[in-house]
């Protein structure tokens, strides 16, 4: 039985995601048994698609059981949508098979590249924001949406440097990709903050440049703090810390603008006990409820 | 060279300078910022190997492992976004890695750990109930044609070292004292339900299972193998749900 809670979203948003407007958690292998044993009150789980591109065994066993009880968000980390070369059609086929098997309520990928030629670099790498990149990214998203026969959500990146030949502002670039391709936005609020601090931009102005009407899911995560050679803050999106208070504030600003939207607590490193993640999910749920009641 | 080609090359080769054409809005040196990406790539790939080869990490100690893995990452970066497949060639690399030549069993422990990963993610298959197997073994008419299909997760490893004992000693932080490191072992790896299991086999039993995998009928496989305890080996395969199909092959 699926625990569906219909999101109270404008139609444009509802069309891009079937996830309930509640908090969700990334599904960690170390938490499989605890999730099945306690069936925590959560809106959805999210998994990295690539982890489940295996023939059989415990990953599929547990995901199938958990999927019976929760909506699912499938999050790709290896498609390399911003890559200079063509998309890996084998990988796209594997994604289509996973989507067929698990019928996720949302599929998302990143505005980034991660493969070059045959080499996979296992990181989300930055793009030069110019017209050739814009055309290429839009063509790749068209190919993904046509192959998967569903709209995808594109996640805004956390970036640490820029390219001299970039001609378009990051938020404007994302807005144009979404306008042209018709994909939705996976708004990573932590990434907004990290990118804005790293490139000395105003997070609220950045948010207001993004097409917030297209948000189908939100990510919240923690960052690590470093500095560059001038001593300026350099924030690193490491998914290894609790969500920072400043990111919670920015999240409130997002909810004020668009109302409640499915929100993932994202933690991939230094994964704490399940109840610690549940506490962050409950914090997000409280804010979602507030936003839903119009207060 | 394209922008991404130069970027990718400098991510993998830590000796290379930061690529041209990068900048930061505050005018800071882009190489410090590029280093964040380089560090992410290097550490995520080394961490992936450390996760897949936990006993190798213990055997050589973490600093040595990370240094060795860094060289492997540079020479043989992943060729697929499926990170569960990364490191297939790591054992062969370790076998040729000169600084570790004095600890020759490490490469085989890596091979065993890789087979465990393969077994963990291998396809699922229904197993045959023990009563059905007993019935087949009890039928003298068809026994000579009886063939077993084995679980897709099942793998064998023949080692000149005590690879199973070394691996097992590191599951519970036991010492390796008392292990005859040079006493070769024949490992059997399989997934039984959700758990990956590792056994040491008699040499003849390992040859026998190899013949079964190649499709030899049970009795032919046993005849072609050096002496071993057939009943015990069959009991092991049955008890650990390794037999997934019974076939009958007409002999010429």
Automatic annotation (TrEMBL), chain A:
One protein family per Pfam: MbnB_TglH_ChrH
Q: Which residues form a coiled coil?
A: none
Report the superkingdom from the record: Bacteria
Alphabetized Gene3D superfamilies for the sequence: Divalent-metal-dependent TIM barrel enzymes
Q: Which SUPFAM superfamilies does the annotation name?
A: Xylose isomerase-like
What protein family is recorded? Belongs to the UPF0276 family.
What this protein is called in its record is: UPF0276 protein HU727_025120
Organism per entry: Pseudomonas khorasanensis
From TrEMBL, chain B:
**Presence of keyword DNA-binding:** yes
- One Pfam family from the record: DUF2063
Instruction: Tell me where on the tree of life, at the top rank, the source sits.
Output: Bacteria
Any GO MF annotation of the entry: DNA binding
> Where does this protein have coiled-coil stretches?
none
Has keyword Membrane?
A: no
Query: Which terms are listed as keywords in the entry?
Result: DNA-binding
Where does the Putative DNA-binding domain lie?
A: 3-94
Kindly provide the name given to this protein in its UniProt entry.
DNA-binding domain-containing protein
> What lineage does UniProt assign to this protein's organism?
Bacteria, Pseudomonadati, Pseudomonadota, Gammaproteobacteria, Pseudomonadales
């Amino acid at each position: 039985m699926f625990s569906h809670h219909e999101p109270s979203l404008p139609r444009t948003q509802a069309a891009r995601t079937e996830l309930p407007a509640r908090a969700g958690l990334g599904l960690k292998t170390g938490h499989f048994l605890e999730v099945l044993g306690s069936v925590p009150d959560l809106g959805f789980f999210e998994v990295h698609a690539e982890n489940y591109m295996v023939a059989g065994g415990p990953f599929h066993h547990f995901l199938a059981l958990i999927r019976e009880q929760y909506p699912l968000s499938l999050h790709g980390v290896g498609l390399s949508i911003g890559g200079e070369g063509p998309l890996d059609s084998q990988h796209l086929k594997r994604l289509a098979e996973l989507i067929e098997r698990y019928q996720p309520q949302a599929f998302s990928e990143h505005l980034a590249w991660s493969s070059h030629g045959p080499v996979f670099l296992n990181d989300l790498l930055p793009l030069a924001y110019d017209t050739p990149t814009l055309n290429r990214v839009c063509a790749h998203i068209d190919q993904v949406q046509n192959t998967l026969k569903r709209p995808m959500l594109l996640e805004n990146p956390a970036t640490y440097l820029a390219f001299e030949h970039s001609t378009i502002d990051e938020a404007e670039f994302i807005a144009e990709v979404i306008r042209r391709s018709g994909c939705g936005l996976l708004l990573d609020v932590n990434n907004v903050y990290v990118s804005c601090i790293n490139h000395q931009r105003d997070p609220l102005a950045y948010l207001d440049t993004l097409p917030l009407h297209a948000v189908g899911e939100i990510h919240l995560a923690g960052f690590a703090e470093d500095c560059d050679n001038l001593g300026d803050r350099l924030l690193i999106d490491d998914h290894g810390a609790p969500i920072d208070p400043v990111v919670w504030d920015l999240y409130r600003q997002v909810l004020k603008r668009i109302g409640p939207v499915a929100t993932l607590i994202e933690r991939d490193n230094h994964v704490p006990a399940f109840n610690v993640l549940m506490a962050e999910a409950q914090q997000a749920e409280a804010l979602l409820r507030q936003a839903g009641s119009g207060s | 060279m394209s922008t991404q080609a130069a970027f990718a090359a400098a991510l993998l080769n830590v000796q290379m300078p930061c690529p041209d054409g990068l900048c930061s809005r505050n005018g800071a040196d882009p190489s410090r910022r590029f280093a964040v990406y380089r560090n992410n790539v290097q550490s995520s790939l080394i961490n992936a190997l450390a996760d897949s080869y936990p006993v190798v990490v213990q055997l050589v100690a973490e600093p040595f492992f990370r240094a060795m893995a860094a060289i492997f990452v540079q020479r043989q970066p992943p060729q697929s976004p499926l990170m569960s497949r990364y490191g297939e060639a790591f054992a062969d690399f370790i076998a040729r890695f000169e600084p570790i030549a004095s600890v020759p069993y490490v490469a085989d422990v890596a091979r065993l750990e890789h087979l465990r990963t393969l077994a963990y993610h291998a396809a699922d298959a229904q197993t045959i109930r023990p009563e059905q197997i007993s019935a087949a073994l009890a039928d003298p008419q068809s026994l000579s044609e009886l063939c077993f299909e084995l679980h897709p997760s099942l793998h064998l490893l023949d080692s000149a070292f005590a690879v199973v004992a070394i691996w097992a000693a590191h599951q519970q932080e036991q010492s390796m004292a008392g292990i005859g490191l040079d006493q070769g072992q024949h490992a059997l790896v399989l997934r039984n339900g959700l758990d990956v299991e590792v056994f040491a086999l008699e040499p003849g039993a390992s040859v026998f299972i190899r013949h079964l995998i190649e499709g030899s009928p049970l009795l032919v496989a046993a005849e072609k193998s050096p002496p071993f305890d057939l009943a015990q080996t069959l009991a092991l395969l049955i008890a650990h749900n390794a037999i997934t199909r019974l076939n009958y092959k007409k002999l010429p």
